[in-house]
């Protein structure tokens, strides 16, 4: 009887059923679409982060930067001795490369890696040292050894008698030209390849770093960097004054994205060449399970004082670009829109159910008069509402899945950049100033003090630092989303049924005697 | 059998207090056919509510057999209505979305009768009011007289002791009115149930063995 009555009631009052179910369906479709887009955006963020932090990294540990202790702090300095460089035809060519920790990067003792590894529920940890190699090379006029002159001071000779025009230099008239070339270097433990930046790359050519590479001057290059710098496997690269053999190139797993660094070398080499012996800049941590992340974060924070311990969630906030816009849009507008529409749908269901019960006052009064208990009448009303909700839920799932499929067919592309903290502040776009080199040093001035820079390197460093990635948004529909959708539909039905049932329960059986309206 | 002792019922209607029944003493014996007449607003409906266990008096007691309807909790009252009292209404009060057969079955629903038994008894009840072939029809597909027959079948299918009819022919034409009254009186005769008919139609009231008039909340025998 319950089901017969229910079926006939829903079929007999199609308009009410359709309105309630449609409202519920739209709300649930919206919830499904927003939830799956949000999951898609999260996946996209994870992809962007992966290209920088590696696969499976749950937590990164860095040292909070402190004020530099020496007067010139982290600034780059190149000092050339008086006899340095090769001189031919009146031009002295000097070149010097330095490997230093990047500006804003604080290093900490490598023994902290053991401390971090010892924290409960840490399943893997690997340390890296982020460095920047800056090569300063240039040509300057030959130093003159004239007794009447004031003598050689620093890099420039200033003739005082004015009788002799300057000579030499790249322009042959006493000018100078310098070239600053910089790229990022990441020292990492070749044995720990399960976690860290190299876990998110695919080998493009040659081989990756192996455990036997410890202490050897071998390097793996980012494939994009290798191409732009005209380097290839088998070639060599000067890092910190040491010649490294290029054994492999790697590409980011994510399309259109550079990997975390331009050059990867064994950690011990990085440490000794940069003078950061026994130091690391970042520790990558993998937690035993995703539920342990908060505990691991708190414990590491305690174990390693003055450190910055970031989880993927913290890191996600560093993702920029349209991905960040999408993320905040989904989290803000999407969430509130879903809640608002859901609330509206619930309200519609409740109001229609109450008005339906009011319209059926005589019907329920009659049922009570012929002996139906309150419970049976309320159950009938609630049953109708729940089924209406379920119909809405199923419809909503269908509409929602269609919406998600449409999104997945359109495949909106989002861009996201993740700026790795150690390179934050890397200046991009300085390369353009190099164009001034020629004009600035034409030497038309008799004093011959022109000079210019060619700053190709900065752009490279900045590019690797803020790896901008194009990610196709894929909105996945998971079973849990569907379960939530059905649960919401049932909840809406129950809410409407509760209000309608409450109203029906308060009806007096004497209502059956009301005269026909 | 019904025994009403000093039954009064007052309603609050906005700021006014309505005395629907004042100090009614009445007993109706088993198997009696009683007609209740009176002007609109005189208390007919209130008296029917007391008899049907649809409402409780403000004071006094209403007994149906051994059950004190005026003091039973709602759940027990519903049980008594389900088993012992059949209702026939002026507006038929059929569930519009259910067929004739299903409408009759609603009366058996609270009695916990199995589906098979239920449909057999309902079909029998429909046959006894002359609607054996109308079971699958919706109320909207039936005439007024047929609808009231379905309602009578619904009231009788549970084999009650009492049949309370509130203006059962008020919405029907004269010819149908006589058919319905003959049907009700036949049931009263054949089954020996107590029949209480509220009506303001004197021709119907005259068919009863006992006539009561209720005016200003007071009951008088005619």
UniProtKB/TrEMBL annotation, chain A:
Residue ranges occupied by any MacB-like periplasmic core domain in the UniProt entry: 17-302
One of the record's GO cellular component terms: plasma membrane
Annotated ABC3 transporter permease C-terminal domain residues: 338-407
The keyword ATP-binding belongs to this UniProt entry's keyword annotation: no
Source organism, top-level taxon: Bacteria
Molecular function per GO: transmembrane transporter activity
Ranges of compositional bias, category Polar residues: 72-104
Compartment list: Cell membrane
Region (Disordered): 66-106, 137-176
Membrane topology reported for the UniProt record: Multi-pass membrane protein
Keyword Transmembrane helix in record: yes
TM helices/strands, residue ranges: 20-41, 333-354, 390-410, 477-499
Biased composition (Low complexity): 147-168
Family to which the UniProt record says this protein belongs: Belongs to the ABC-4 integral membrane protein family.
PANTHER family the UniProt entry points to: ABC TRANSPORTER PERMEASE YTRF, MEMBRANE COMPONENT OF TRANSPORTER-RELATED
Protein name as catalogued: FtsX-like permease family protein
Organism of provenance: Orlajensenia flava
UniProtKB/TrEMBL annotation, chain B:
Short name of one Pfam family: ABC_tran
GO molecular function: ATP binding; ATP hydrolysis activity; transmembrane transporter activity
Keywords on record: ATP-binding, Nucleotide-binding, Transport
GO cellular component: a single term: membrane protein complex
Keyword Heme recorded: no
SUPFAM superfamilies, alphabetized: P-loop containing nucleoside triphosphate hydrolases (SSF52540)
Source superkingdom: Bacteria
Domain ABC transporter: 2-222
Matches recorded under CDD domains: ABC_MJ0796_LolCDE_FtsE (cd03255)
InterPro entries documented for this protein: AAA+_ATPase, ABC_transporter-like_ATP-bd, ABC_transporter-like_CS, ABC_transpr_LolD-like, MacB-like_ATP-bd, P-loop_NTPase
PANTHER family: ABC TRANSPORTER ABCH.1, IMPORT ATP-BINDING PROTEIN
Protein name: ABC transporter ATP-binding protein
Species the sequence originates in: Orlajensenia flava
């Amino acid at each position: 009887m319950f089901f017969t009555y229910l079926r006939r009631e829903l079929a007999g009052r199609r308009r009410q059923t359709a309105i309630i179910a449609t409202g519920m369906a739209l709300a649930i479709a919206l919830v499904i679409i927003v939830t799956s887009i949000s999951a898609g955006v999260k996946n996209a963020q994870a992809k962007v982060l992966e290209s920088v932090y590696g696969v499976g990294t749950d937590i990164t540990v860095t040292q909070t930067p402190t004020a530099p202790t020496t007067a010139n702090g982290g600034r780059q300095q190149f000092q050339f001795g008086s006899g340095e460089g090769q001189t031919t035809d009146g031009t002295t060519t000097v070149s010097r490369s330095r490997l230093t920790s990047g500006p804003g990067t604080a290093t900490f003792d490598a023994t902290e890696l053991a401390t971090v590894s010892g924290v409960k529920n840490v399943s893997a940890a690997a340390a890296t040292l982020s460095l920047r190699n800056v090569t300063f090379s240039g040509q300057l006029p030959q130093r003159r050894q004239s007794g009447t002159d004031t003598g050689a001071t620093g890099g420039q000779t200033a003739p005082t008698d004015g009788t002799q025009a300057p000579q030499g230099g790249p322009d042959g008239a006493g000018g100078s030209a310098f070239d600053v070339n910089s790229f990022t270097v990441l020292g990492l433990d070749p044995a720990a390849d399960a976690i860290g930046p190299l876990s998110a790359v695919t080998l493009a050519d040659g081989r990756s770093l192996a455990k036997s590479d410890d202490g050897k001057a071998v390097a793996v290059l980012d494939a994009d960097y290798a191409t732009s710098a005209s380097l290839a496997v088998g070639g060599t690269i000067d890092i910190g004054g040491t010649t490294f053999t290029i054994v492999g190139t790697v590409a980011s797993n994510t399309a259109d994205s550079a990997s975390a660094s331009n050059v990867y070398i064994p950690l011990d080499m990085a440490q000794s060449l940069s003078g950061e012996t026994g130091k690391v800049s970042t520790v990558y941590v993998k937690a035993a399970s995703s539920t342990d992340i908060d505990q691991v974060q708190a414990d590491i924070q305690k174990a390693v004082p003055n450190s910055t311990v970031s989880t993927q969630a913290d890191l996600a906030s560093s993702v920029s670009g349209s991905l960040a816009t999408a993320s905040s849009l989904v989290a803000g507008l999407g969430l509130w829109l879903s809640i608002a529409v859901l609330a509206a749908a619930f309200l519609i269901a409740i109001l229609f159910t109450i008005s339906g019960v009011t319209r059926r006052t005589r019907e329920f009064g009659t049922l009570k008069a012929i002996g139906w208990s309150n419970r049976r009448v309320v159950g009938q009303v609630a049953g109708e509402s729940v089924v209406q909700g379920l119909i809405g839920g199923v419809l909503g799932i269908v509409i929602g899945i269609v919406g998600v499929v449409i999104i997945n067919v359109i495949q909106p592309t989002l861009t996201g950049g993740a700026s790795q903290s150690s390179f934050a502040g890397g200046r991009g776009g300085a390369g353009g100033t190099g164009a001034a080199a020629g004009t600035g040093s034409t030497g038309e001035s008799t004093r011959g003090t022109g000079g210019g820079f060619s700053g190709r390197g900065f752009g490279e460093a900045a590019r690797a630092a803020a790896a901008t990635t194009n990610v196709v948004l894929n909105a996945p529909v998971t079973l849990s989303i569907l379960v939530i959708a059905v649960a919401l539909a049932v909840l809406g039905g129950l809410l409407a049924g509760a209000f309608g049932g409450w109203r029906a329960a308060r009806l007096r059986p004497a209502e059956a005697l009301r005269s026909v309206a | 059998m019904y025994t009403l002792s000093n039954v009064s019922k007052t309603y609050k209607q906005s700021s006014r207090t309505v005395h629907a029944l004042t100090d009614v003493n009445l007993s109706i014996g088993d198997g009696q056919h009683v007609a209740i007449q009176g002007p609109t607003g005189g208390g007919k409906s209130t008296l029917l509510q007391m008899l049907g266990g649809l409402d409780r008096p403000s004071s006094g007691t209403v007994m149906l057999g051994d059950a004190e309807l005026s003091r039973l909790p709602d759940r027990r009252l519903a049980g008594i209505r389900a088993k012992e009292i059949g209702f026939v209404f002026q507006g038929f009060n059929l569930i519009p979305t259910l067929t004739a057969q299903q409408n009759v079955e609603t009366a058996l629903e609270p009695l916990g009768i199995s589906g098979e038994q239920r449909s057999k008894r309902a079909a029998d009840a429909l046959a006894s009011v002359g609607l054996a072939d109308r079971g699958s029809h919706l109320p909207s597909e039936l005439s007024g007289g047929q609808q009231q027959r379905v309602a009578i079948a619904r009231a009788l299918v549970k084999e009650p002791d009492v049949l309370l009819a509130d203006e059962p022919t008020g919405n029907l034409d004269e010819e149908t009115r006589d058919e319905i009254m003959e049907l009700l009186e036949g049931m009263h005769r054949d089954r020996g149930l107590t029949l209480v008919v509220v009506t303001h139609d004197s021709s119907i009231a005259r068919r009863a063995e006992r006539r009561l008039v209720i005016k200003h909340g007071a009951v008088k025998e005619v």
